[in-house]
Amino acid sequence: MHHPHLLKQAAILLFCATILQTAVAQDPAAKTPDGPFRNGMVVCATPNASKVGLDILKKGGNAVDAAVAVQFALAVTHPEAGNIGGGGFMVYRSAKGNTNTLDFREKGPAAASANMFLDSAGNVVKDMSLATHQASGVPGSVDGMVEAHRKYGKLKWADLVQPAIDLARKGFAISRRLAGSLNWGGPQFRKLNPGKTYFLKDVAWKEGDLLVQEDLAKTLELIRDKGRDGFYAGKVADEIAAEMRAGNGLISKADLQNYHSVWRNAITGKYKDYKIITMPPPSSGGIALLQLLHSVEKYPLHRWGHNQDSTVQLIVEAERRVYADRSKYLGDPDFYKVPVDSLLNPTYLDNRMKTFNWNAATPSSSIQPGAFVGYESDQTTHYSIVDKEGNSVSITTTLNGSFGSKILVGGAGFLLNNEMDDFSSKPGVPNMFGLIGGKANSIQAGKRMLSSMTPTIIEKGGKLFMVVGTPGGSTIITSVFQTILNVIEFDEDMQQAVTSKRFHHQWLPDQVNIEKDALDPAAISKLEQKGYKIISGGASGRVDAILVTKDGYYGGADPRGDDTGLGW
Hints:
alpha+beta; six-stranded antiparallel beta sheet; 18 helices
């Protein structure tokens, strides 16, 4: 549910990773697992899902086996964002250094059209792209897991899905944070799911309550036994189609049958001595991350120091230019020729940075998307995994908003995404994260919507160095960027780099959002004197990352959530 006054102030950006306006206090203790671990590590959004992943590694499974098990376990234990009704991206690096990426992003249904969220006067209909059956793209997560396992998995598929079935059927004790989320979502669940949801109780949810999801367990059993056909055909496909008919949704059985995830070459770049391996379009994250890293590379960040005024000013000015480019040039490469080479051209990026002045903020109104010669959700989730051999995966997956559209598929027990909001409903009109888009990201049948998800793997000297990613809607890119700099430039260990306070700028609205106490008063004062508008607010992102050292693996599990790192 959206509060117009919050959107107006773009304050919704600040509720990254939970978008809960409930007063859920941040756990003061970072969940740093003792390291180093030599045999493998899993860092993800819930303790239960981390344990499932670690158990798979201990049984001889590789990083992809563990990732499949974690994805399904998160669909049970982290319903705000873990999913089978959404989509995402995987970046993979084998122990030998071979890389690949899998795009299992949702697609626009065949009946989708450019103006589907506009009224007869051509104005965007409030909340239609968020809390209706039309808000859902064709889900990709199950197909993505099937494809990843087919290509790289070692253990039997059924053994990877079974732990999630057990968690759904037997139930698990919910955390204080999940109790707060379920209570926050209650009114919408009630309104959108007449008589069919186990997310509702007669009394408020509290920490320690058992959440049992029998319908979801049955759906997962079909996926266990029939693989892809357990979701995209048969009983579950019938249930999705029936749910769509009941609510005037667009997804048909043909859409489900026609959905396929896509293997794409990673985009790679350099930052100093490091090789960055990241996600290509339809994620905007990889290109934006490489643009940001190049834009700041020549400056003495290490000397200036972490979150000092010069460091913040440089990063904000880089972000301002990169997000302007994102608004115009990024979309689904199967539908639109994304000018990747031009966007990553060093001369282009250097020229973009020449237009900023140390004495005064550049107004965003004066920055346009660059000229060449010739988005997501707060409620996304990320997991990073490395196995004994050194194979690694970085996966970010989402329903878009918290609990997606809040609509459960009747009888099947899983939530539908509201990913259609990540398209540009109308060029120039912001989406739920205040992000502006253009024709490159217009709604089309069969097209994948633009994303900010930025799963990333980094090498140093040809060896694995870091696996990193985060949820956080439009702040994903800047959170990953700052976490990388925290390690490389500011000498923080993995847990410190993840825990450190963050800030964010995204071109429009023209303001710098900071976490509480991210900057000291002197730095804020200097920046404000130069014309920067600083807004202090809630948590930004939930980074989950792994650092590889000569001693072994160290994890960083974000204390902003229930995130947990486990290794052995």
